[in-house]
Amino acid sequence: MPSKSTAPPFKSTARVIRTAVLAVLGLLWLIPVYLLIINAAKAPETFTTTHSWRPTDFSLLSNIGEAMRLSGLADSVLSTLVYAVVSPVIAVLVGAAAGFAIVALRLRHGFAWFVAIFGGTVFPLQMILLPLFDAYSRMNLFDTRLGMILVYTAISIPFSAFVMRNFFTGIAHNVFEASVLDGASTGRIFFRVYLPMASSALVAIFILQATFIWNDFLLGLVLSQSDTVRPIVTSLAGMQSTYGGAQMSTVLAGGLLVSLPTVVLFLCTQKFFSRGLALGQY
Amino acid sequence: MRSRKIPLVVAAAASASMLLASCGGGGEDDGATTGTLDFYTNKAAWEPDFDELNAASESRADITLNTTGYSDAEQYDAFVRQSFRTDKSPGLFTWQTGPSLAELVEEDLIAETTDIWTKAVDSGWVSTDLRETYTYDGKQYCVPMNIAYWVMYYNKNIFAEQGIEEPTTWAELNSIAERLTGAGITPYYQTSTLFTFQWFQQMVAGTDPELYEGLSTGEVKYTDPRIVDIMETWLDQEEAGWFSDAGSTTDPAVGLKQGDYAMINFGSFFNGSLDGAGMVSGEDYDMFVIPATNPDLEQTPVAVESGPLCVAENSSQKTLGLTYSEWWMSPEAQTAWSEARGDVAFNPKATVADPMLEELGTTVASDDYQLYDRYYEATPTPILTVALEQFGAFIANPGDPMPFLETIQAEADDYWAEQE
Amino acid sequence: MTSDKATRPKAAKDPYHWSARGFIAPGVLGVAVLLYVPLLWTTFISFTEYNGLGDPEWIGVENYVEMFDDPAFLGSVLNTLLWVGGTLLVPVGIGLGIALLTWNLKGGTWLRLPFLIPYAVSGIGVAVIWSFILGSGGALDQALGAFGFSDTPRWLVDAPLNTVVMILATAWQGVGVNALLFTIGLQSIPKEPLEAARIDGAGGFRLFRSILWPMLRPLTAVVVGLSIVASLKTFDIVQGMTKGGPGRDSETLALTMYKETFVNSEYGLGSAIAVFLTIVTLAAAILYLRQQLSSKHEG
Asked: Contacts of residue C36 in chain B, CB cutoff 8 Å?
């Protein structure tokens, strides 16, 4: 039984240097975010691009209000939330089950099956939009929440299966064998042994896919129509065009508002990535 | 072995779906003349304006628009094309005039509007010139949603500071450009993506409207010496520093406001963007019709862009859509629309909210001006795609125009050969 | 005989045969019905002449011939390759670096956060903000100007510079995801070999090469595999920033496909490009993953 507390692998001076490097790099990474915020806060009437780095005024709230008015954003929030939670949860479970079948249960021709699922991500999404629209409108799935959940789940599965399959290969096979000797069924082993061990991977997949779905524009554009079904970014994108509509700072403010929930999601899930796995429990 | 079965299963599912697809689309016209009409538009930014118009249409025609806006024009085109095959074919949708509309009409996908036009022309609601744009084989299809004239916008403060008046001849316009350049001000806005055609359009039509017409019918080649001459003039102007940096990503309305350039050649819907950017119509900005390049022309050519409002022939809401179209043409609807949208009205009996646009409408209606279809609508799509790219490349790196023109002409040759 | 009840792990041939099929079925079905069926339609269309109206007309391989005849197609392929190489080098490399730096570091999770935030910014926001930074006279030029560099290149106009800067903008958004995936990989590494190596006096680079890198392999395969696939179908950022221009200088394959399909309504030609892109991507992914995955864990 290895001890749970791990000694730091590097010396303290190295820690300081690492922290410093990360802090500097992190600040560099936040510069575009800074520009996004200060320019989203400029009033459209006084907005210029000649002093991009300086905050001039603070009209963020009125810009956000204008963005919500122009795009009908409020109607979309609830359904987008449903898509961004339900679809990734299903996809994570389905993907983990696939990984479990290939790695732990040693499914025959596992690699071929894996490629079959992974192959779902390789072609550009734009190519399947029109046949999907055609099929959806024939099967009465067009402009329904069920239809949106189905398609979002399907496109999240390959990524989820890929990560989970590879994550499970890091778990020694004798973990599985030991559980079998304890008399557990495969279902039980999956839910009680493998899934808990993979919690950080599951959470990572969930937040990445939830963010992806939350930010989806294309599928929402083609497969939905009414304000209550359309996802949020599709609604948001509608307010900007050559033929007038929102000004740049309003667009930025809308974009900022839409990004907030995902940032909060990232903040809330950080603790899942703070520790290593307790792999020694079997 | 099992893995080899995957394609089989999938193929079976695919053939099943194709079987489904081959059963034609469309629904039965339900004949309703009042109620909620599903409306699709690629001018998504106008959605609030359409919603505002509902107040008028509900009380007068008892029809409410349920608007779905598509912010991506290309996805929108594909969506509408596909929808004709399904029972979602739209009761009302926006489209483009020119070859794109002709294509739909040829496939019998659009409901005829000849009766509506006859009534509108008889009532003096619309000009016969505009009817031409909507006529195919002697019949009319769709009704005009919006109309825009392509003019020159300018920053009034810059013109005032430099003591410049609106030009009335091409030579005056050129001397203004020279003067501004001398004062360290860039005269014209340009971009290397999408809106790359307007200066070419302006100079070709302004030199000879028939030459312009010939390009769109394939009778004139892009490598024609007269076209090459015009491109050489453009190149000289580029080299003289008359155009803004093609790499700038500043919104053109903001660019005009902050004086990055003094003038922009744009459609008259640009008022909305300028107002939104905080400029005041008639105070901070104004517009003039660009004088003809060739002073001997009797009429000054003005590019016009008109977006149609169409009804699908096989839509379940065909009658409802046509009823709305008829109401749309009326002065009452157009006055309400002009109030909501603030745009030029095609109906001379409608009241236009913005005096600058009102004046523009009256000006171009006089005999001194001649309207021609904008390059974007006049040019067949495959040629247009290549031309927009090539003009963009020319704008980014101005040089010998021949290679650019030859590339466009190669595509034009292919296209016209296929039309035989 | 139900395999679920099997108690002898190495008994018979394959006691989990049915169970395994049951576990993989939902994934395969979901992907097949919603993604592969539409793809087959696309493949069929690639052998036809179709403008989105009426019925497709079978023309055999004509679209493919036309595709390879087009000189712009070659430019598109080259740009796409530049994207593949660039995204392997920059976001994957930096992502690994960040994962290693934050690994077992106090507060590491919070130091990783700034890199994840860009991923939360929606695609519209990314294209808008980077156009704003990289446009001539934009935020970057203003910053450089403040340090006395006034003669800056036209970032989004001059090729192939425009592709390079767009790769960097993509890296800005993608690094956090890669760092997160590598972190999960690091977390799954058992502690014993690490302890042993450290007792042997291994540190820094040697520890990385001898222990971490080999053990990170499963997750490296994920990151590299996803990176190859994503970069081969690069679309959003290019469409948002240069639309493939000026001319066709920064066009990628996905953009060429999009243009033919959606702008020109040449559904057949667009589909042919999509099929070509899919085959190339799948081939690259299989070659890479076979080598990375199958040697150790599966037969």
From this structure: 10, 13-14
Residues 6+ apart with CB under 8 A from B4: none
3-state secondary structure of B69: strand
- Residue ranges of C 209-248 with Cβ closer than 8 A to chain B: 241-248
pLDDT at site C11: 44
Residues of chain B scoring pLDDT < 50: 1-24
pTM for the whole structure: 0.86
The DSSP secondary structure of B13-42, one letter per residue, reads HHHHHHHHHHS----------SEEEEEEES
- For B2, the token pair is 């099992």
Provide the number of CB pairs (under 8 Å) joining chain A to chain C: 341
DSSP annotation of A8 reads: P
CB contact under 8 A, A50 and B69: no
Q: pLDDT, tens digit, for every residue of C63-121? A: 999 999 888 899 999 999 999 999 988 999 999 999 989 887 888 888 888 998 888 88
Shortest distance between the Cα of B88 and any Cα of chain C, in A, equals 15
Residue found under tokens 């769109």: B216
Q: How close does chain C come to A281, measured CA to CA in Å? A: 11
For chain B, list the domains and their CATH numbers: 27-142+311-348 (3.40.190.10), 149-303+374-419 (3.40.190.10)
Q: Determine whether the interchain pair B2/A240 forms a contact, defined as Cβ–Cβ distance below 8 Å.
A: no
> In order of start, what are the domains of chain A with their CATH numbers?
72-238 (1.10.3720.10)
Please answer yes or no on whether C157 and B247 come within 8 Å at the CB atom. Answer: yes
Report DSSP state, residue C261.
I
Q: What is the pLDDT of residue B11?
A: 47
Q: Which are the contacts of C214, defined by CB distance < 8 A and separation ≥ 6?
A: none
* Cβ atoms of residues B208 and B296 within 8 Å: no
> What is the CATH class of C36-297?
mainly alpha
Selecting from B10, B82, B192 the residue whose C-beta is nearest the C-beta of C32 gives: B10
Identity of the amino acid at B195: F
Own/partner pairs, B181-187, CB within 8 angstroms, 24+ separation: B181/B240, B181/B241, B181/B242, B185/B158, B185/B259, B185/B261, B185/B262, B186/B241, B186/B242, B186/B243, B186/B244, B186/B260, B186/B261, B186/B262, B187/B242, B187/B243, B187/B261, B187/B262, B187/B263
Inspect the interface and report whether the beta carbons of C285 and A122 lie closer than 8 Å: yes
Say which residues have a Cβ less than 8 Å from residue C228's Cβ, sequence separation at least 6: C84, C88, C281, C284, C285, C288
pLDDT given for residue B164 in this prediction: 93
Name residues whose C-beta falls within 8 Å of residue B11's C-beta, 6 or more positions apart in sequence: C40
pLDDT at A1 over 50: no
- CA torsion through residues B180, B183, B189, B191, sign: positive
Residues C252-276: tens digit of each pLDDT: 999 998 888 888 888 899 999 999 9
* Coil/strand/helix, residue B65: strand
Quick: pLDDT tens for B100-124.
899 899 989 999 999 999 999 999 8
Three-class SS state of B308 = strand
For residue C114, give the nearest of A29, A204, A236 by CB distance: A29
Quote the tokens at residue C67: 């595709």
**Cα(B399)–Cα(C76) distance, integer angstroms:** 23
Residue type, A235: S
CB C156 within 8 A of CB B247: yes
Distance of CA A251 to the CA centre of its chain: 22
Q: Does C28 lie at the interface with A, CB-CB under 8 angstroms?
A: yes
- Tell me the residue type at A229: V
Q: Which neighbouring-strand residues pair with B264?
A: B153
The length of chain B, given as a count of residues? 420
Residue A101 near residue A176 (C-beta atoms within 8 A): no
Question: What is the number of CB-based contacts under 8 A between chain A and chain B?
Answer: 115
